[in-house]
Amino acid sequence: MNDQTIRLGNIGQIALPVRDIQKSIRFYRDLLGMTLLFQFPNMAFFDCGGIRLMLSLPESEMYQNPGSVIYFKTEDIEEAFRQLSEKGVLFLDKPHRIADMGDHEIWMTFFRDPDQNPLALMSEVFRKQNP
To answer: What distance in Å separates the CA atoms of residue 69 and residue 130, rounded to the nearest whole number?
Structure first.
């Protein structure tokens, strides 16, 4: 158990729901000049001044939302989940791995604010290098 209180502040990612991923990629890359970092069949990630912009087709009805999702970075997602749960934050899921990026994994968990806006915790867990 960690005695240090988790504080959120740094935004690591903002998600925008889209209807056509390829059309959106062309718009953000070709018209707005953003750098495409990587993509999956239903998602594309762009660099937006050091903050990741994620364009995605909703994967299920639970994640359909007409607005954006703000992802707060945390070093220890399990500890942040525990502390925020103890304070009364109701999470939609438990921390889970979203992607394996080779040298690190991306973990997330989702919750809502009092107005039902979707929010998330995200953590990039880097693999330990063997000496």
So the answer is: 36
Which residues fall within 8 angstroms of residue 56, CB to CB, at 6 or more apart? 15, 16, 17, 18, 21, 42, 43, 44
Of the candidates 53, 32, 51, 35, which has an alpha carbon nearest to the alpha carbon of residue 43? 53
DSSP element (H, E) containing 86: helix 77-86
Q: Report which DSSP code applies to 31.
A: I
Each residue's pLDDT tens digit, 78-98: 999 999 999 989 999 999 999
Looking at domain 11-126, does it have CATH number 3.10.180.10? yes
Please state whether the predicted TM-score (pTM) of the whole model is above 0.85. no
Q: Which amino acid is at 107?
A: W
**Residue spans per domain, the chain:** 11-126
E strand or H helix that includes residue 103: none
| Token pair of 52 as six digits | 């990741």
Per-residue pLDDT tens over the stretch 19-56: 889 999 998 999 888 999 999 999 999 998 889 999 98
